[in-house]
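Fold this sequence, please.
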Amino acid sequence: MAKTSTQYVCSECGWNGPKWYGRCPECGQWGTVEEFREAKAVAGTRTAAPGRTSRTTALHVGDGTATPVTEVGTESVRRLPTGFSEFDRVLGGGIVPGSVTLVAGEPGIGKSTLLLETAGIIAKHQPERTVLYISGEESQAQVRMRAARIDALSPNLLLASTTDLATVLGLIERERPALAVVDSAQTIVSQEVDGISGGSTQVREVASALIDTAKSLDVPVLLVGHVTKDGSIAGPRTLEHLVDVVCQFEGDAQTALRMLRAVKNRFGPTDEVGCFDMSGEGIEEVSDPSGLFLSDAETPVEGTCVTFTLDGHRSLPIEVQALVTNSVLPTPRRAVNGVDTNRIAMLVAVLYRHGRINLLGNDLYVSTIAGGLAKEPACDLAIVAALASAARSQPIPRTTCAIGEISLTGQVRPVPRLEHRLREAARLGFTTAVVPRLRKRLSIPGLRLVEVDALREALDTLGLTGR
């Protein structure tokens, strides 16, 4: 029986010590310090595939294993395409050999479907090599049924169902696949350390062993991670520090739209976002999501205004819809969807003070289309314009968009990367844009720019001046 040493580790910041604290001495979080019991196995018996030595055993190495930095080759690493251009965009061009990528998301959001479809595509494009999919949550028959539904069947796509870490490492070492998918980190268990499945001790051991295997065999690993109730990745925070790439798979259960964001990426940008559509036949990428957040109405409708928001390097059009009714309640109702409630309260006050439109006693309903988010300050002008349009029963032309932040003084302030937003507006057929006063001259072919300094001036331009 291997001896164990007991330490206490903070799941938030990774602090460790010999004594338990209710509040972490390092980060100050309450209830995050947990007991960590790590087995001290003898050389060669730590969780590993057959023939692998312990990570803590000193090995005799020959000369030349450490190379001077000036002699390291500068040729670029050949990345492995996933088959999804949107997935490759988020990863920075594809999967780097020997890297470990953690894909996290809520239950049922489509993590396993995305990775199984990716494994199927890579298996079809590389028939000379195998792709290994290891599931700790489903049987081989269940995974096969899903693979048939999403057309991911391939003879060189190997399926395994196990929760034992040593078996997982042995399969990866024996097959040496082009890609290994492990679903999920919280279900794999090491027999050499204490702790329950999904606990801090087990997750830390599983991640460390998979990273060692990936680096030593130059096999890329896609690792599925669960999330907690507050949306953070389950397990110790050091899990995110250990892996090379952390991706969040997000989406609204009421819509089919899914977003993949890179939270951490050692090999590419962290401000990219990939768009996918969830269907019964699997996941399809959406290369041009511009039309997802706009309604199909061709004639102008009162209470609507279009703005452009930034999501990574993408500029997306967001249609803001507003409904204003007389309130019969002592406290008027404020119902919003896709918009910040506190921001609405502030904009209504600014609209009353500087726009001469009193909506303080009305019930207000503000929403976006198809789950889009209009929480960026650059959406302020469009929100105010939609509220004023609904209050005055005056529609805004469909070819007009409004972009700008509104301050408490009623000033329309500049927003970042305005030119990028306006070029996307011109590409989608918008002919007029109400924008803040520009610091330098800007010319967008096909788009007339109306520069304003204050809210009152913007409402005059749109024909929404309060009386």
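The chain is about 25% helix and 25% strand. Residues 200-217 form the longest helix (18 residues).
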